[in-house]
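Quick note —
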Amino acid sequence: MIPTTRLAVISSHLRSSAPAEESPLQSETVAASSSKKESKDAKPNQGTLTVTDNRTGKSYEFPIKDGTVSALLLRKVSAAPGDNGLMSYDPGFQNTANVTSRITYIDGDKGILRYRGYPIEVLAEKSNFLEVAYLLINGNLPSATQYTEWSRSIMTHTFIHENLVSLMKTFRYDAHPMGMIISTIAALGTFYPEANPALKGEGVFKDIKIRNKQMFRIIGKVPTIAACAWRHRIGRPYNEPINELGYTENFLYMLDRLSETNYKPNPVLVRALEILFILHADHEMNCSTAAMRHIASSGADPYTAVAGAAGALYGPLHGGANEAVLHMLEEIGTVENVPKFIEEVKSKKKKLMGFGHRIYHNYDPRAKIIRKVAYEVFESLGKEPLIEVATELERRALADEYFVSRKLYPNVDFYSGLIYKAMGFPTDMFPVLFTIPRVVGWLAHWMEHLDDPETKIYRPRQVYLGEETREYQPIEGRPDAKVRSQGYYSSSVSTRSQKISK
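Predicted structure written out below.
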């Protein structure tokens, strides 16, 4: 039976979310030059770096390893005794590597994305999501026997406790699905005290069986939690999972089944979502993955860490970018309005969403794949009117030197929102559809973090520019403080009580 239940769902609550502008490079206090002592046949990413401090005239030689210099070595660059040396300053971590990873490789200039060495294009064409999940977490693609056991282990952990179901039903009818998912994943950890380092000791995850159990639980249950959040949103009873179905197929089943006994999701949509899940499974050290590792570095359990990572993904600058694309396309409206919009972007009156990427300075390899998937979905469900606007916008932008010279190419968000809209998902479900596959990437990084001998609790430094020591003044003689506004808006209850008091 082909699903049509979500095709009529409104595409509302659109919000634009422009990426924050990158801060200019900070002025440097030291001059650096390549050491002449390096061997002529040294590897490009190895060798040494000589740094001359122009304040003192002293030179320092630092080893280069894998294209990096240890930030701790900057402490040696000192202008006076007791000043603790220099620190690197990098707001937004634009050029800071805080881990050594073997999971995902990105070359932004060449538009390359690989999971464990496999090109994303090959995996999207030939693999399914659970196979890619095995690859990301375990390092290699599974054999047929390994895949069968892996799939069984995940699909037998899809049910959630009835107490958790009851908790989800206490959310307001209009609760944002991401708020529900973040809260529920955090609550999920309370059901498994044997996996809580705060209760069982920080060495609990040295046991690989305990690690694996939590991994299977989280991967298996997140689609169920997401489906329950969707059903809650539309006021329908929650569906239980059917473990005989595939991972993505089961998710669509839980979303759409009404009372049918033989309901089967549309195979075209299953495959489309499968590909989207593969493309979103991991993307190196992004905001939410960094949050996952940051929380995990304290020894917190994976449920808490995943909930925190999902909180980072909830932000419009990370998980909400495709919403902004959809809003932009709807604002343009028709193909005829594209030239005018292009000119408004060039004159900085409008923002072009879905183009450009902090990492990619070429065509996002995921965008090429999604473009093809979009047309397959439209062929099955009917053409999405905004696709013509998107296609014309892409054509004109890629032919315009203004955008090409700035290396503004379509990214993964440009077409993904259109696919989700065509499938009947409202925009507040978009970050949910991002979260489900990204959980696998987060867990892959969690596992890698646990095995990393360089693992330490994350503790970034700061540059303090606040007040020096001040004398305390009693409140009786203290003047009004010069601070930011303390105003706030009134809720309906406080407004009503004010009227009553009058």
